[in-house]
Amino acid sequence: MNPFTSRVIDIIKSIPPGYVMTYGQIAGMAGSPRGARQVVRILHSMSSAYGLPWHRVVNAKGEIAIKDDESRFKQTIYLSDEGVIPGKDGLIDLERYRYVPVDMSER
DNA sequence: GCCATGGCTAGTA
DNA sequence: GCCATGGCTAGTA
């Protein structure tokens, strides 16, 4: 597996309950700032095999971007179960719920 | 060719 | 709304 792919998987697995990350944020953290779509692909195809908390990933606007209605609904439920509730505008407040891991090398 | 993006712009109000 | 972007694990043998 490509290093980028395994980094993305590790990052996604590190998102704690009650928090979300964005596709672009994950891609950038994995070393490919333009790789948001790869994150999408990984989430789409490898979530079940790797037990990824796929529901904790949203787009840059704080939207649940998944297309499939059923999965979309599940994501909404999973997030609300963890306390992540969209605002009146339907968007998840990233200021509040975004997970920003502390980079140990910068301490 | 696929995919659940992201960021910038045109066009409107 | 448009379009540049990029790495590759889909699946019902």
Give a short summary of the structure.
The chain has 107 residues and is mainly α. The protein is built from five helices and two strands; from the N terminus they run H-E-H-H-E-H-H.
Provide an overview of this structure.
The protein is mainly alpha-helical and 107 residues long. The protein has a single domain, classed as Winged helix-like DNA-binding domain superfamily/Winged helix DNA-binding domain (Arc Repressor Mutant, subunit A, Orthogonal Bundle). 47% of the residues lie in helices and 4% in strands. It is built from 5 helices and 2 strands; from the N terminus they run H-E-H-H-E-H-H. Strands 1-2 form a two-stranded parallel ribbon. The longest helix is centred in the middle third of the chain and has 15 residues. The chain is globular and about 40 Å long. 27% of the residues are buried. The model has no long low-confidence stretch (mean pLDDT 91).
Order of helices and strands: HEHHEHH
Overall geometric form? globular
CATH topology annotation: Arc Repressor Mutant, subunit A
Alpha carbon gap, first and last residue: 31 Å
Number of strands: 2
Q: Architecture in CATH?
A: Orthogonal Bundle
* Strands side by side in the biggest sheet: 1-2
Look at the structure and give the CATH class: Mainly Alpha
- Poorly predicted regions are none
Beta-strand content = under 5%
Write down the domain tally: 1
Quote the average pLDDT: 91
The CATH fourth-level homologous superfamily:
Winged helix-like DNA-binding domain superfamily/Winged helix DNA-binding domain
In DSSP terms (H or I, runs of 4 or more residues), the helix count works out at 5
What percent of the residues sit in helical stretches (DSSP H or I)?
40-55%
- Radius of gyration, rounded? 13 Å
Biggest sheet details: 2 strands, parallel
Structural class per helix/strand content? mainly alpha
